[in-house]
Amino acid sequence: MTPATVMEIGRSALEVALIVAAPMFAAALITGLIISILQAATQINEQTLSFVPKLIVMFVTLILAGPWMITMLTDYIRRLYGAIPSLIG
């Protein structure tokens, strides 16, 4: 196993992790932005107000995107396990 191979495996692992986490990050970002705009418009400066909506939206996003996330992760693991013989020899 060469250093280039290790770097390629690490790069693809980070790529898959970012792709899988993107829906959750996007949901939290959009929800936080909407709540911040509402707080600025109503002048309610409560920091805990944004926590519950973010939690709910992220839970719904996990339910909706969960099967896709698991499929992406299992496909990556299958490709990685399938490449073990070529990585060793």
UniProtKB/TrEMBL annotation:
Subcellular localization: Cell membrane; Bacterial flagellum basal body
Pfam families: Bac_export_3
Record carries keyword Transmembrane: yes
Swiss-Prot/TrEMBL keywords: Bacterial flagellum, Cell membrane, Cell projection, Cilium, Flagellum, Membrane, Transmembrane, Transmembrane helix
Membrane topology, from the record: Multi-pass membrane protein
Superkingdom to which the source organism belongs: Bacteria
InterPro entries reported for this sequence: Bac_export_3, FliQ
Transmembrane segments: 12-39, 51-70
PANTHER family: FLAGELLAR BIOSYNTHETIC PROTEIN FLIQ
Known role: Role in flagellar biosynthesis.
Similarity comment text for this entry: Belongs to the FliQ/MopD/SpaQ family.
Protein name: Flagellar biosynthetic protein FliQ
Species: Uliginosibacterium aquaticum
Lineage of source species: Bacteria, Pseudomonadati, Pseudomonadota, Betaproteobacteria, Rhodocyclales
Gene assigned in the entry: fliQ
